[in-house]
Amino acid sequence: MKWLLIGIIVAATSVGEVMQALGMRRHGEIHDFRPGALRRAMALLARNGFVIGSVLAMAVSFFAYMGLLTVAELSFAVPATAITYVLETVLARFVLKERVNWLRWAGASLVICGVALVSL
Amino acid sequence: MHSDTARLRVKSWVCAVVVVLSSVFGNFFLKLGMPASLETPAAYILVLFRPTVAFGVALLVLWMLSRMALLSWADLSYVLPVTAIGYVLVALVGRILLHEAITGRRWTGILLIMAGVALVSVGTTPQTVARRAEPVGASR
Asked: Domain residues of chain A, as ranges?
């Protein structure tokens, strides 16, 4: 049950994150943090297909995460869901076409190893 | 160009701090208010009305919004590693506030995470700015 929930969380989070990044990139940098401007930005984002998709994926991930929290400790649940790093770094490189240099790969790998140890 | 880079770096760090703290304490309050089991779909909805759970959810909403803002100017592969410091803080919160047992192996993992985070965040921001600047000049 634990690992099924983790699988759902990892898949839904990774897909959601990538769609969120695609959606926000299409929107562009947020410069203006005044309430009116933020409201206009929110209205635009609410019509952005990638942003809508990412919110749905995050909702799936969130309810699965609530289920996981009922059966697991916090210091297990949070690191275990970090398996998303593997999937997300690969997706960042190949779907978002971000430059991922060797230093970032090394750093991300270290983080993943650390997360694996933490969850043991 | 230089001041723009500096501005983005400060803005990114301030935003990253909000992202990390809202995530850590959002998870903490969510766990604090969560019952031992959720049997029915209705139970998943009803539990959201417990004050501690609701506060945790509010913090996680702040986490999501601040993270979306950060993602509008920074790469996902910058945001992910930098906010990974949250894994260290959430373990500390679990240990101190929830009295969870944390083994030596787990603490080793935490040190590895910190090393990984330090490695990735050095010199990442200029690359994020450079990547934005390039296509505009090259393609138009």
From this structure: 2-119
What contacts A5, CB < 8 A, 6 or more positions away?
Answer: A64, A65, A67, A68, A71
Nearest to A118 by CA among A83, A76, A90, A85: A76
* CA B83 to each of CA A28, B66, B121, B136: distance values in angstroms, whole numbers, following the listed order: 21, 12, 10, 29
Q: Give me the residues of A, 2-31, that contact B with CB < 8 A.
A: 17-18, 20-21, 24-25, 27-30
**Highest-scoring range by mean pLDDT, A14-18, A29-33, B24-28, B114-118:** B24-28
Residue among A105, A109, A82, A107 at smallest CA distance from A93? A105
Say whether B109 and A117 touch across the interface (CB within 8 A).
Answer: yes
pLDDT at B110 over 80: no
Q: Are A98 and B89 in contact (CB under 8 A)?
A: no
Q: Please state, in angstroms and rounded to a whole number, the distance separating the CA atoms of residues B84 and B76.
A: 12
Measured in angstroms, the CA of B35 and the nearest CA of chain A are apart by 6
Measure the CA angle with vertex B60, ends B73 and B24; round to 5°: 90
| pLDDT tens column, A58-81 | 899 999 999 999 988 888 888 777
pTM above 0.95, yes or no: no
Contact predicate A51/A20, CB 8 Å: yes
Closest CA of chain A from B34, distance in Å: 6
